[in-house]
Write a structure and sequence with these properties.
Elements (H helix, E strand, L loop, with lengths): L1 H14 L12 E6 L7 H17 L3 E6 L9 H7 L6 E5 L2 H9 L7 H6 L8 H8 L9 E13 H7 L7 H13 L3 E4 L6 H24 L8 H16 L11 H9 L3 E6 L3 H7 L7 E4 L12 E9 L7 H11 L2 H9 L20 H8 L5 E2 L7 H16 L4 H10 L5
Parallel strand pairs: 1-2, 1-3, 5-6, 8-9
Antiparallel strand pairs: 3-8, 4-6, 4-7, 4-8
Helix pairs in contact: 9-10, 9-16, 10-16, 10-17, 16-17
Length: 420
């Protein structure tokens, strides 16, 4: 009788909120929009381990992956956020132009406070944090999952057999391309028809001609696209097309077609980032034969890859688990996870902070990390205002195909840049 009375009292107190009753961990589901490649066993191996380890460290939590249907660029992210069944945290390709779209639409939450209270500020490169903090009046809305490093991919065996090397001055670069052309090969492969890959080539030409500081001013509208330095980069694209170093037929190729041209060894050099490794792998190209180099420049210290923030984590304003989403991002930024991903066979992006004594499973990634060690230049494609992006890509096609002059092309781009 006494036991029943005590139990009844305890239940009443608990119902009134006056007595803490131990319970099992509350069941929570975290919906993660991350990768659409889970059908690939190697990719699934990575993401299933991340899921399992996070769940083990957070009893009661279940991670559910939501296959992405697209990106910010095609509106898929925006549609998912505004649906009733959107993700709690998402990973998508970023860059200021894309992030501005979802920030202005008030679809993603500011994360600035987490950079302080969860120490994220110290978990990315200082220069990367500085860039993020300068974009929206000090407010930060994304957490970089990796940075891009776009450079020149070449066939190691082909270059060794012919005694070719990439380096030296711009004149040396032209001389190399002429030797390649004389061998009956396409010197440079590019697929601008679906836009992005043309930007990879153009960004490298602008970096070599203008350098990081000048291009930083150009992409932030402090300097005109028509000024002498960026104009030189555009003129070199035109000149290369006339000399046959970038064949006019390239203007009609997309990324997939240009990739096949390179993997079939009909072209010697391809402009792209570490993601190109997976493109080559899908075409059954021997990954160990891939070499990576930076574009030659006559400017001291400016032979470097171009890039920007390749992929970022964001928390939608509609997230049902914002605190758990922040915990997931913090987990992704941990040394254990970063090293696991970087050293896995699928590790084809550069971590957003230094990773001492890293041992990539893909040998060429060591070359990519080394090339990007002193920072990367600007890939305008991810910094370009949305209103100007289509024009930028169209101009690149026109430069390669011979339909537009360097002067007219750069003037067209400048005309689309919003005044500060």
């Amino acid at each position: 009788m006494l036991r029943r009375t005590l139990m009844a009292s305890a239940v009443a107190l608990a119902a009134a909120g006056l007595l803490a009753v131990p319970t099992l961990a509350e069941a929570q589901t975290l919906t993660v929009w991350a990768t659409d490649q889970l059908a690939d066993p190697l990719v699934a191996e990575v993401w299933n381990k991340l899921k399992a380890d996070f769940e083990a460290a957070n009893p009661g939590v279940t991670v559910e992956y939501m296959p992405p249907t697209g990106t910010i660029s095609n509106g898929a992210v925006q549609a998912a956020i505004q649906s009733d069944a959107g993700p709690d945290v998402l990973l998508t390709n970023s860059g200021i132009g894309r992030v501005t779209t979802v920030v202005n639409a008030k679809l993603i939450a500011p994360l600035t406070a987490h950079y302080a209270d969860m120490g994220w500020k110290d978990k990315i490169f200082p220069w990367l944090y500085e860039i993020l903090g300068s974009q929206f009046g000090g407010e930060i809305y994304e957490v970089p999952d990796g940075i891009d490093a776009i450079g020149l991919w070449y066939h190691k065996d082909l270059f060794a057999e012919n005694g070719w090397t990439i380096g030296g001055s711009w004149a040396d670069f032209e001389a190399l391309l002429q030797k390649i052309k004389d061998k009956g090969l396409e010197p440079l492969a590019v697929g601008p028809r679906n836009n992005a890959n043309g930007g990879h080539l153009m960004g490298n030409f602008l970096q070599a001609a203008a350098g990081t500081t000048v291009m930083g001013e150009v992409v932030t509208a402090k300097k005109s696209w028509s000024d002498a330095e960026p104009l030189l980069g555009a003129q070199r694209v035109v000149d290369f097309a006339k000399k046959g170093y970038v064949s006019a037929q390239m203007a009609g190729l997309d990324l997939e077609a240009a990739t096949r041209l390179w993997t079939n060894k009909r072209a010697a050099i391809f402009f792209g980032g570490p993601w190109f490794i997976n493109n080559a792998r899908k075409n059954e190209y021997p990954i160990d034969n891939m070499g990576f180099a930076t574009i030659p420049s006559d400017l001291a210290g400016e032979s470097k890859p171009t890039g920007g923030i390749g992929w970022s984590w964001m928390i939608p304003v509609s997230s049902k688990q914002p605190e758990l989403a922040a915990k997931w991002i913090d987990y992704i930024l941990s040394d254990e996870v970063m090293r696991f991903r970087a050293e896995h066979k699928t590790g084809t992006q550069i971590s957003p902070r230094a990773m001492p004594e890293l041992k990539p499973a893909v040998p060429v990634m060591a070359e990519v990390f080394a090339a990007a060690a002193n920072g990367v230049g600007f890939n305008p494609s991810v910094y370009m205002p949305g209103a100007a992006l289509d024009t930028y890509f169209q101009v690149i096609q026109g430069l390669i195909g011979g339909q537009v002059s360097a002067e007219d092309g750069m003037a067209q781009i400048q005309a689309k840049i919003p005044a500060l």
